[in-house]
Design a protein that fits this description.
Structural class: alpha/beta
Distance between the termini: 44 Å
Number of helices: 13
Shape: globular
Helix content: 40-55%
Bound molecules: S-adenosylmethionine
Number of strands: 8
Order of helices and strands: HHHHEHHHEHEHEEHEHHHEE
Strand order of the largest sheet: 1-4-3-2-5-6-8-7
């Protein structure tokens, strides 16, 4: 049994390969990575301090020291290899059933999808395959193709290793709604936009709380969006997906009550992020709310190792804007875009939003998947 009708099915051998990827990733992350963290904290940081240097400030230099160690380079190489094997094994599983998935998507009714064969993805998404996903988010064979959506959905469950809501990968969506309930409890959104929805993991979860709302998701890949529509519909949510750049959409001014993004800001660029916020501001009606959820590994709250790990993401997992997103004053950018009552802080991850739950939004950070960084504001 798959979690929804569009999820690619795995044979026994494919499932065994996926289990191998997950156990290798777990070993690298839970067994080896803490040793590097310890080496940095207990060995290199005191050495830097003895020389009158601040290891956290000079994390790039410290990383160069680490990279001279064969064992460290082996950890790096294995981490990249595990990621590549994840995409390879999932890609082969999807390709075995691709025709069937394309056809299945057409038989599932609900919502809509609008693609544009002339669409050009922004350079920061087309020039690198983010997360090493072959072809990147924009890959599309046209017609009824859903391949990139199926690959992303199947791989995401392995990638997050159960920490984002298992195969539904929807904890971030529930967490956005929890933030809304806690901080903007009076808002009853009738029109909602999710910018950078990918295959609708968060969009579908958000839609489930507002059955009367018209819910839209935009992203840059036609195959992602065709898959997303069928996936949402198979989970009982009618979502309208369209292939658009969040920096400039074709929706009318003041069209939405709520505009959200989830884990998108670190995949944009210095120049795109303010434009996305300005566009969100244009799209909201007065009194409407913008909520952005981001990775919580902000440089001002996290350890030296976290900075080094961020450098790894940027250089070896094709996340060129990772460090920019963790160091920028995102709240200030929201204010510059015109938002009032801007909040920036951390919200506990939750698998189910609840209006009656005790508030968890604070200024205290925590580990990724345990808390999320939120920046929100009102038009
Ligand atoms: C990590 S994924 C987001 C996952 C998804 N929001 C969720 O919560 O499951 C980042 C997504 O943002 C999209 N994205 C980044 N910049 C964008 C832009 N300017 N316009 C539309 N989508 C964008 C990428 O194409 C990618 O699909």
């Amino acid at each position: 049994m798959t979690v929804h009708a569009m999820m690619p099915e795995a044979t026994h051998d494919e499932a065994a390969r996926f289990a191998h990827v997950v156990s290798l990733k777990n070993f690298l992350m839970r067994n080896l990575e803490p040793k590097w963290r310890g080496y940095v904290d207990e060995h290199l940081t005191p050495q830097f301090a003895a020389a009158g240097r601040d290891a956290a400030e000079e994390y790039r230099d410290l990383e160069r020291r680490l990279a001279k160690l064969g064992a460290y380079r082996t950890w790096q190489a294995l981490t990249v290899a595990a990621q590549e094997e994840m995409w390879r094994s999932v890609g082969q599983c999807v390709d075995r059933q691709l025709g069937d998935l394309d056809t299945r998507a057409k038989t599932i009714d609900g919502g809509s999808v609008r693609t544009d064969s002339e669409f050009v993805a922004p350079r920061y998404l087309s020039k690198v395959d983010i997360h090493l996903m072959p072809g990147g988010y924009a890959a599309d064979r046209g017609g009824d193709d859903v391949r990139q959506g199926a690959v992303f959905d199947k791989a995401a469950a392995l990638y997050h290793m159960g920490r984002n809501g298992g195969e539904l990968n929807d904890v971030r969506g529930h967490t956005i709604v929890q933030h809304l309930f806690e901080r903007y409890g009076n808002l009853q959104p009738k029109r909602i936009l999710d910018i950078g929805c990918t295959v609708g993991h968060s969009t579908t979860a958000i839609a489930s709380y507002f059955p009367d709302a018209e819910v839209h998701g935009i992203d840059v890949g036609g195959a992602l969006l065709r898959y997303a529509r069928a996936r949402s519909a198979s989970l009982g949510q009618k979502v309208h997906y369209s292939q658009q750049n969040g920096e400039q959409t074709d929706f009318p001014e003041g069209h939405f009550d709520l505009v959200v993004s989830s884990a998108v800001l670190h995949e944009t660029s210095f120049s795109a992020l303010p434009r996305i916020f300005k566009e969100a501001h244009r799209l909201l009606r007065p009194g409407g709310v913008m909520i952005n959820l981001e990775v919580p590994l902000r440089f001002d709250t996290h350890s030296t190792w976290s900075r080094i790990r961020g450098l790894f993401e940027a250089l070896h997992n094709n996340e060129p804007f990772w460090i920019g997103a963790q160091t920028l004053d995102v709240g200030a950018i929201a204010k510059s875009a015109g938002f009032a009552e801007v909040l920036a802080g951390y919200q506990n991850a939750t698998p189910k939003a609840d209006r009656a739950a005790a508030p968890t939004f604070t200024t205290k950070s925590g580990p990724v998947h345990v808390v999320w960084y939120m920046v929100s504001g009102v038009k």
